[in-house]
Specification:
This protein has a single domain, classed as 2-Layer Sandwich (Nonspecific Lipid-transfer Protein, Chain A), CATH 3.30.1050. It is 42% helix and 19% strand. The chain is built from 8 helices and 5 strands. A 5-stranded mixed β-sheet has the order 3-2-1-4-5. Mean pLDDT is 89; it is low at 1-19.
């Protein structure tokens, strides 16, 4: 029985290691973050009103995010669209829309350490922005109106495994 338990434990560690192999904020990580967005009721439901409909007429909002020390060239994109009154992530991966509308879209970046702290819930978006842990551009007043869901967005970083040793390519 102990041998079976040891084999099972080794298999679990291998799977956990493989899950960590993708760099934090890589294409694969962004796709997983998109799925996690859709599994988070506070994001899907609470942002399903005026927030997601404020899309500049293009049918979706964009969130670009990256780790500061990895540079802007490593940005990843989450595309959020209105679907049946909900804010649904329809794409997560490499940036496909380089031109952002600053009245509706967002860019967020932080150091890897700060992303980790926010992802663990050590502090929320207000503190992160006030003390410069999270650099943010986009419609600030709109963001202020959705602080609860915004905090849930930051927690996605802690829910989606990612290797912090290497920058995404």
């Amino acid at each position: 029985m102990n041998r079976i338990a040891a084999v099972a434990a080794t298999a679990c560690l291998a799977v956990a290691g493989a899950a960590q192999a993708t760099p934090l904020m890589s294409d694969e990580w962004a796709a997983q973050a998109c799925s996690q967005w859709n599994a988070t009721p506070a994001l899907v439901d609470e942002l399903g009103g005026s927030w997601v409909r404020n899309d500049g007429g293009k049918g979706f909002k964009l969130i670009h995010l990256y780790r500061s020390e990895c540079g802007e060239a490593t940005r990843r994109e989450l595309r959020i669209a209105a679907r049946d009154g909900k804010a649904v992530c329809v794409y997560g991966g490499r940036v496909e829309h380089t031109k952002l509308d600053t009245g509706v879209d967002y860019v967020m970046h932080a150091t890897t350490a700060h992303w980790g702290e926010m992802g663990r819930g050590q502090y929320g978006p207000m503190r992160a922005m006030m003390f410069g842990a999270l650099r943010f551009s986009g419609p600030k007043m709109e963001a202020m109106g959705v602080m609860g869901p915004f905090e849930q967005f930051l927690l996605l970083v802690g829910k989606v495994a990612g290797d912090t040793a290497a920058c995404p390519a």
